[in-house]
Amino acid sequence: MMYAKSGTGTVPFPLIFFLLFASYAYFYQAGGWNQNSRFALVRAITNEHSVRIDPFQKATGDKAFFDGHYYTDKAPGLALTAVPIVALARPIMALGGDDPESYGGIAFLSYLATVLTVGLLTAAAGVSLYQVCTDLGATRTGALFAVLSFGLASPIWALATQFIGHAFSAACLVFAFTAAVRIGREKVRLKPDATYLPDATYEPDTTYRSDVRLGLVVGLGAGWATVSEFPAAVPAVLLAGLAAVQVRPLGRARVMRVLGALAAGALACAAVLMAYQYLCFGSPFHLAYSSEQGYEGLQQGVFGIGTPRLTRLYQILLGEYRGLLPLAPELALAPLGLAILLFQGARAHRAALVALLIGVYYVLLNAGYTYWEGGWSYGPRHLTPGIPFFCVGLAILWTQAPAIFRAGLAGLSAWGTALSLVAVATMASPPAQFSRPVRELLLPAFHDGDLALNTQRFTDAGVDVGGWRRHVEPKAAFNLGMKIGLDGHASLIPLALVWLGCGVYLMVRLKADTTTDQGSADHGPPEGGHYVPRSG
After folding, report:
1. 3-class DSSP assignment, residue 514
2. DSSP annotation of 368
3. What is the DSSP string of 400-419?
4. What do you get for the CA distance between the two ends of the chain, in Å?
5. 18-29 per-position pLDDT tens digit
6. What is the pLDDT of residues 295-318, one digit of tens each?
7. Three-state SS for 189?
8. Of 323, 326, 359, 318, whose CA–CA distance to 341 is shortest?
9. Closest CA to 440 of 413, 428, 449, 431
C-alpha cells in the first residue's frame, strides 16, 4: 500500500472547500426545464404540502402525468434535500417584508436551494476527493491538481451552479467511495513505554465507531446518489462491493458492523424513495419516468438506455457539440494514472478498479442513451458523475510524472478551467440549437463581456427576446459582481481576487512540499504509528 510522503507543508481542507464553494456560489444560472421540474417539487411541498406540481407545471416540459395530476419526472433526492432550506427561508423572508412568491423571491429561494445543496456538496466532494487521493498514494500537489481538475476544469463547475442532479449525485458517490477506501485504515498510536510483538496487529479503541461511521457513509452516500439520479444505482452496488471486500479480512465482528451500517444507510434512502413514489403514484415501485410526457424514446430499452453506439461515443468524447475532452482535455490522460494505481498493491488495486469501472460505466451509459446529447447542456452531462473517479487517476499521474509532463498536464487543466469559466459566466446550459456552442455562442459572448445570457426563470419558461445576445431587465441569470453594480468582465473581478488570494496562500503552504513532489509516494507508514489493515 502506498502512503503520501509526510512533508511539512499542508493543504488546509477549509481552503479547498472555500475556493470551490466561492466559485460555485458566485453564479446564479436561473432556470430551465430540468431545474424547474425539480424546483417545482420543492415549491409544491413547501407551498402546497403536496408532491403534485399542478400549480407550477407550466414552467417545465420535464414532467410526468398520472391519474389527472402532474409530477416532476426527475429522481426526487435533490429536491427533497432542498425542501428544509426553502421551508426555513420562506418565513424568514416574509418576516423581512419580502414576498417569497414574487419573481425576486423565487429567484432568491432557488439560488439558496442550488448553492446550499449542489454547490455545497460538490465543494465538500472536492475535499473528500483530496483525502482519498492522498490515501491512495498521491502527493499533496497531485491530489490538489485532481481536485481543481474535477471542480473547476471540467463541466462539473457548470453543473455545480445549477439545480440539476448530476454534480449532486457525483458528490454523494465520492463520499461513498472515500469511505469505502478508508475502511480498515485506522491509525494506531504506539505508546513508547509499551511492549509489542513484532508481527502482531493492534487495533485502535475507535474501531467500532469508525466501522459504523464508514459503513453508514457508504450506504447513505451511494443510496442518496441513486435517489437523486437513478443511473447511480450501478455505481452504488460497486461501492457496496468495494466496502465488503475491504472489510472481509478484518474479522466477522467488523464485517457485521460495517455491512450492517451500510445496509441501514442504503435502506433508509430506499425507504424515502419508495414512500415518495407511493405518495405520487400509489406504488413504491412506480418510477416517474414510466409516466413521462412527450419523450417516446424513453420507452426504448431501459428508460431509453440501450446498447452504446460508436457514433454517440465519438460525439460525447470528441465532438464539438457535446464532447467532453475538448472541454476538459486533461481527462484524456486520467486512465493512465488509474492503470498505474492498479499495480500499487491490493488495496490500491481494488480502489483503482472500482474507480475505472464507474467512470467507464457512465461513458457507456451516455453512449447508450437515446437522448445522449442531454438537451441544453455544457458537454455530455449524463456521464459527468464519472468525472471525479477519473480524476483519481490524474492525482496518481501527477505524482508519478516528471516535471515536464506535469507542466503539460497543468496547461491542459488551465485550458479546461478557462472554458468552464466562460461557460458559467455566460450560459452554463447552452441551447441545443447551437451545433458548436462554445465557438458559436459562449466565446463570442464572453469576448464582448456579454454575460449571464439565460432568460429562463424558475417561474416560467422564460422571455423570448429574439436571440441569446439580447436581454431584458432584470436579468434572469446573474453573478454576484453584478449585484454590487459591476458589469461585463468587471463583474468577475471579485471572484478573481478570491482566486488570487487562495492561490497565493496555497503556494506558500505547498512550498515546503516541493521536494516531496520530485518523486513518488512513500511506502512506509506515517511517523508515530502504523496502519491496519492486516493485508493489502
Report:
1. coil
2. T
3. HS-HHHHHHHHHHHHHHHHH
4. 6
5. 999 999 999 999
6. 766 667 777 788 999 999 999 999
7. strand
8. 359
9. 431
Helix 334-341 / helix 346-367 crossing angle, nearest 10 deg: 150
Q: Which residues have CB under 8 Å from 536's CB, separation 6+?
A: 1, 249, 345, 346, 347, 350
In the block, residue with C-alpha cell 441569470: 477
Task: Compute the distance between CA of residue 56 and CA of residue 218 in angstroms, rounded to an integer.
Answer: 35
Q: Where are the beta strands (DSSP E) in 42-181?
A: 63-66, 69-72
Scan for cell 403536496, then name that residue.
50
Please check whether residue 376 is in contact with residue 172, taking contact to mean a CB–CB distance below 8 angstroms: no
Residue written as grid cell 416574509: 94
Q: How many CB atoms lie within 10 A of CB 212?
A: 16
Rg, Å, the chain Cα set: 23
| Number of neighbouring beta carbons within 10 Å of residue 462 | 17
- pLDDT tens, residue by residue, 220-272: 999 999 999 999 999 999 999 999 999 998 888 899 999 999 999 999 999 99
The span from the CA of 91 to the CA of 95, in Å, is 6
Average pLDDT score, the chain: 88
Grouping H, G, I as helix, E, B as strand and the rest as coil, residue 28 is strand
Q: DSSP letter at 181?
A: H
Q: Cell 491496519 belongs to which residue?
A: 532
- Where are any strands of DSSP class E within 254-334? none
Cell numbers for 116, please give them: 446550499
Q: Name 302's bridge partners.
A: 305
Q: Say which DSSP state 334 is in.
A: H
Can you read off the three cell numbers belonging to residue 16? 479547498
